[in-house]
Design goal:
Layout lengths: L1 H28 L3 E3 L10 H21 L3 H24 L2 E3 L11 H28 L1
Helix pairs in contact: 1-3, 2-3, 3-4
Length: 138
């Protein structure tokens, strides 16, 4: 059990390191946007955002520790890494560092990609489980 949790923690930290390295790299090659607002540009006090982020990370870590499904665990690792990247930015910089690759894409960062990937994997797992449950009922 300890070995599984250690691997999960290393995966979260490795993805977090990738996020931070890319933000630092892009910060040297192009201008980063310091996003002090909440998701989707919602105006929320930065202390509330930071506190909510920490609470969410603790809750997600708890869920990861309880997870017995591989797909769910991978999804939670991505979500934890993305959340850690954004909460870490808020702690160190007072904002989330975003970049824009083109004029038609919104501002985002690698943490946002990890969050989205994790959410999609969770949704896929939910539909997979629902389909398996429906097939078992027949």
């Amino acid at each position: 059990m300890f070995e599984k949790r250690a691997k999960q923690a290393l995966a979260v930290l490795a993805l977090f390191a990738v996020d931070q390295a890319l933000k630092n790299f892009f910060g040297e090659t192009r201008e980063l946007f310091c996003n002090a607002q909440g998701p989707f540009g919602i105006s929320i006090d930065r202390h509330i955002l930071f506190g909510a982020g920490v609470v969410a990370l603790v809750f997600l870590a708890f869920l990861l520790g309880k997870s017995r499904d591989v797909l769910e665990s991978v999804a939670l690792v991505f979500i934890l890494a993305g959340g850690l990247g954004n909460v870490g930015d808020r702690l160190v910089f007072g904002c989330v560092r975003d970049f824009q690759f083109s004029s038609w894409l919104p501002f985002f960062n690698v943490s946002d990609v990890f969050l989205g990937m994790g959410a999609l994997l969770l949704l896929f797992g939910m539909f997979r489980d629902r389909k398996a449950g429906t097939a078992a009922e027949r």
